[in-house]
Amino acid sequence: MQAATHAPIKGGALVLLTLALALATFMQILDSTIANVAIPTISGDLGASFSQGTWVITSFGVANAISIPITGWLAKRFGEVRLFLLSTFLFVIASWLCGIAHSLEMLIVYRIIQGAVAGPIIPLSQSLLLNNYPPEKRGMALAFWAMTIVVAPIFGPIIGGWISDNIHWGWIFFINVPIGLLVVLICWKLLSGRETAVSHQPIDTIGLILLVLGVGGLQLMLDQGRELDWFNSNEIILFAITAAICLTALVIWELTDENPVVDISLFRSRNFSVGCLCTSLAFLVYLGSVVLIPLLLQQVYGYTATWAGLAAAPVGLFPILLSPLIGRFGYKIDMRILVTISFVMYAATFYWRAITFEPNMTFADVALPQLMQGFAVACFFMPLTTITLSGLPPQKIASAASLFNFLRTLAGSIGTSLTTFLWYQREAIHHSQFTESINPYNPISQQFYQQMNHFGLSDTQTSGYIAQQITAQGFILSANEIFWLSAICFLVLFIIVWFAKPPFGTKSR
């Protein structure tokens, strides 16, 4: 990567800038996951059903998915610093409005605004960090930034669960206010005189319309698919057709337009294409497990939302400890080797879960694989981000970061939808297979009913107990099948990264 236009920031100011941009990233990712566990509380308080309450998540996701890929174009038109400060400040206001909402309709409107203004925060925090860091320390910058990306989804459910259990759900959104204002203050002081070049390009109206319809349709399909029974629903079919047509037309249009709203030409860079593909596929599998494990713990093992979050939390330990070391010394190792180590460790931890997740599983059986997976997480995002952005000029970083983060976010949405779909579908299959053996002609089945009768349970009560056990067993088996599949995916996935071509970034000193 080439040097930025302005001289790098050094000393204490650099530490403050890193902290502020990391906090901005953490805040935005946290907000995309923190509300998930609080939906029952929010729905009950606002007098809505659970299915209506899920629009609190969907509305944010759709608006956010649409705004992320246009960040590069907006940054060129208004300047990266100005756009970042405005987006963060508007995010603070939208968060406050979400916290004081008195109806579900108001909350959904404010969440749409919040998701839309949040889009530029992550890609611009990445771009501003790289373009204001000394070239020899950019590996360290990416390591700190990447740590927040992978750790924040773990803390979201913990904080959201604790808030919904102990205080008013509005504080899920209010906590963004002091963090966001601190970020705006620090970045305004440090970056106000370091604005990037502004280019008043004409608005790509057709590209923007295709983007909104295509990405919006795709995100709605992913968010509402399971609830509406996927392609048995006319709505899902309509969303899918809209997304397919508009996204295909978008790619064709953007390749021919002089001022594209999404810079598709970035994929001409070999490393950008390889990095985006590896990151997206890895996030698809990884975020699926981030959603699946708390669901399994709460629905089958009776964990509260807070304890489910705590069981998953150890994954954040190794990234916090190792990210500075990888950022400082990682350049001495081929980035592809670090990614390979990460993917092999991911495969090992998924295999570990597949052989230990059973009915009598303990808290340690959940926490220990999470702890070891943290090692894979620490070696994952910084090397892949370095590979993805290697060789790109500074003026392309904002566009590249927005497209890169859009694909990562979209892959995460696909991963969570696909994982939950497979989990429920496989449970239904296992459930039907188990129940086939519960009949009057099975002596073992009848013997069990007789034993339960001796304990004072009626046949109806015994049937209810058996159904409950079958459902639990079905969910555990289906989760283990997903863990096996995830392990295989990561073993295959590391092959792709070796298509990237060195050198990667700038060496640290």
Name a few traits of the molecule:
Growth Hormone, Chain: A, 509 residues, 22 helices, mainly alpha, 76% helix
Structure, described:
By secondary structure, this protein is an all-alpha fold. It has 3 domains: 10-201, Up-down Bundle (Growth Hormone, Chain: A), CATH 1.20.1250; 203-258, no CATH class; 263-509, MFS general substrate transporter like domains (Growth Hormone, Chain: A, Up-down Bundle). It is built from 22 helices and no strands. The protein has helices at 12-34, 39-45, 50-53, 55-67, 71-78, 80-99, 104-118, 121-132, 138-166, 171-174, 176-191, 205-224, 234-256, 270-299, 305-312, 317-329, 335-356, 363-378, 381-389, 394-435, 443-454, 459-497. Helix 1 crosses helix 9 (138-166) and helix 8 packs antiparallel against helix 9 (138-166).
Work out the number of β strands. Answer: 0
What is the residue-mean pLDDT, rounded to a whole number? 81
Q: At CATH's second level, what is the architecture of the largest domain?
A: Up-down Bundle
- Structural class label: mainly alpha
CATH class wording of the largest domain: Mainly Alpha
Rounded Rg:
24 Å
Largest sheet: none
Q: Work out the count of structural domains.
A: 3
- Please report the number of helical segments: 22
What series of H and E elements makes up the topology?
HHHHHHHHHHHHHHHHHHHHHH
Shape: globular
Residue share in helix: over 70%
CATH superfamily of the largest domain: MFS general substrate transporter like domains
Give the SSE map:
Layout: H1 12-34, H2 39-45, H3 50-53, H4 55-67, H5 71-78, H6 80-99, H7 104-118, H8 121-132, H9 138-166, H10 171-174, H11 176-191, H12 205-224, H13 234-256, H14 270-299, H15 305-312, H16 317-329, H17 335-356, H18 363-378, H19 381-389, H20 394-435, H21 443-454, H22 459-497
